[in-house]
Prior knowledge:
Helix content is about 30%, strand content about 35%. The chain has helices at about 20-25, 40-55, 105-120, 135-145, and strands at about 1-5, 10, 65-70, 75-85, 90-95, 125-130, 150-155, 160-165. A 5-stranded antiparallel beta sheet has the order 1-2-3-4-5, sandwiched between helices. It has a 3-stranded antiparallel beta sheet with strand order 6-8-7, covered by helices on one side. The longest helix has 17 residues, at about 105-120.
Amino acid sequence: MQILETSRLIIRYFTIRDLEALVPILGDPQVMEFSILGVHDRQLIRRFVEQRLLSYLDPGFGLYALIHKQNQELIGYCGFFVQKIDERKEVEIGYRLATKYWGKGLATEAAQAIYHYGLNKFGFQRFICLIEPHNQRSIRVAIKLGMELEKEITYYNKNVQVYSINYCCK
């Protein structure tokens, strides 16, 4: 089921049929360089899809498939994670794209659409991105969303920067 559309993307719920299309994306060491779980095999990808399907039921949102309009190819994902930072629940905007789609502004396009979807559909007022300091691509996307560096933390034994934006203060 489609939830959003941008000029170049269709953003929709994942389905179990997306498993094969995710193998070259989540199995790519470049794509997964900054992933806590690292490169995904088929079993992890199946679990990834199953977790997305469950998240649509509870809490009612999650990560969504990105489909490139031009060729109808699944090119990655963008959506929401609930993270616990300093004993506080935070809504993270997460994104990941196949390498051949890097540098084209698609992650920013998807993240901006998801940001507005979160504001309008779920009433989220604050968003974060957890980004390793040397992940310059993700930092650029966060900054283009209007996020600013808030602090540095250790998250799953990794040093990450917390970028944030508060809708009330934008």
